[in-house]
Amino acid sequence: MRERSADRAWLTVVAVVALAVAGAAVVPALTDARPANEVPVGEVDAAADPTAESWSAVPSADLALASAPSGVPQASNVSAERARVRAATNGSHVFVRVSWDDPTADRNAASPRRFADAVAVQFPANASAHPPIAMGGPENRVNVWYWRAGGSTEELLAGGAGSTTPFADRAVDAAAARENGTWHVTFVREAGLDGNRTAFAGDRDVDVAVAVWNGSNGERAGRKAVSEWHYLATGPGPQGPPYETILWTVAGLAILFVTLVTVEGVRRTRGERA
User: Fold this and answer.
1) Which of 254, 264, 265 is nearest to 18 (CA)?
2) In the chain, at which residue ranges do the beta strands (DSSP E only) sit?
3) Which residues contact residue 241 at a Cβ distance below 8 angstroms, ignoring those fewer than 6 apart?
4) What pLDDT digit, counting tens, does each position of 185-239 carry?
5) How many alpha carbons lie under 13 Å from residue 209 in its C-beta half-sphere?
6) Measured at the alpha carbon of residue 242, what is the angle toward residues 240 and 246, in degrees to the nearest 5?
7) Among candidates 77, 81, 45, which has minimal Cα distance to 63?
8) pTM summary value
9) Which of 51, 107, 191, 230 might form a disulfide with 37, Cβ 3.0–4.6 angstroms?
């Protein structure tokens, strides 16, 4: 009976050790999870080309899109439901790539009844502020990077609906590519500019929102598909030890405790058998 009890005790301890090890293995998966509104920021040498191979190594975030609150006719009739955003830096420049599905490529806006596909990326002009999502406010403006199919790129400043003003000296460049019914548009700009331009100093996260227009669906101006505010993870992250380090430390202590219990259990079992 003693031998059976010892065997059972041994099996119990082994099972507990196995569970502790398995729990430790799960920790990295848990720490890899990120907030739903975070857009991670990768590091690249150069990524102005939206088809560059370096983008494949940059993590992405899917942003849900919905019609913008607007009084224009058919404002709720928009087609894009999701945009995929990748962001990266090489230390001196910031790169943002936006991808979205669109079955038609609408590049010609020459006719009054035709409209071009377009995309915009919006940031707070003051990176530490949180402006209203609908083009900011008079005391809390936004910096907008805008691309329209056909080659038009603009950098804009807005302080509320109807106040959009282009910068005379545009600092943003954009490039576009279309693959299998998907637009890919990359914006690039120096990171540390100021003068009503969003500064990406690396000392804080920066809010970001996206808007998409489908020209063949009659979308233009305030009729557009927009996201809520998300943020580019350009800051240093949470203060103090990284969460991963904390969790691994806890898991390691748990394994150490179970190991000591195991050793003590084996020692006592052997003593009882003797």
Assistant:
1) 254
2) 38-39, 41-43, 60-64, 66-67, 82-89, 93-101, 118-124, 142-148, 152-158, 165-166, 173-179, 182-190, 206-213, 225-226, 230-232
3) none
4) 999 999 988 888 999 988 899 999 999 999 999 999 999 999 999 999 998 865 4
5) 24
6) 100
7) 81
8) 0.75
9) 230
Contact 65, 225 (CB under 8 A): yes
Q: How many DSSP H helices and E strands does the chain contain?
A: 2, 15
Nearest to 65 by CA among 46, 74, 78: 78
Residues whose CB falls within 8 Å of the CB of residue 229, separated by 6 or more in sequence, listed in order: 37, 130, 133, 207, 208, 209
Query: How far is 100 from 98, CA to CA, in rounded Å?
Result: 7
* CA dihedral of 8, 10, 14, 15, whole degrees rounded to 10: 20
Q: Are 95 and 29 in contact, with CB atoms under 8 Å apart?
A: no
Residues in the chain: 274
Q: Is 149 in a helix, a strand, or coil? A: coil
Burial degree of 242 (CB within 10 A; 0-12, 13-18, 19+) = exposed
Total Cβ atoms within 10 A of residue 160: 17
Name the one residue in this structure whose structure tokens are 């103090």: 240
DSSP 8-class letter at 158: E
Question: Residue 96's CB: how many other CB atoms inside 10 A?
Answer: 25
Q: If we measure between CA atoms, which residue out of 203, 176, 202 comes closest to residue 187?
A: 176
> Cα 27 from chain centroid?
22
pLDDT tens for 73-89 read 899 999 999 999 999 99
- Provide φ and ψ at 14, rounded to 5°: -60, -40
Which residue ranges of the chain lie beneath pLDDT 50? 2-6, 8-32, 239-248, 250
The owner of tokens 């403006």 is 141
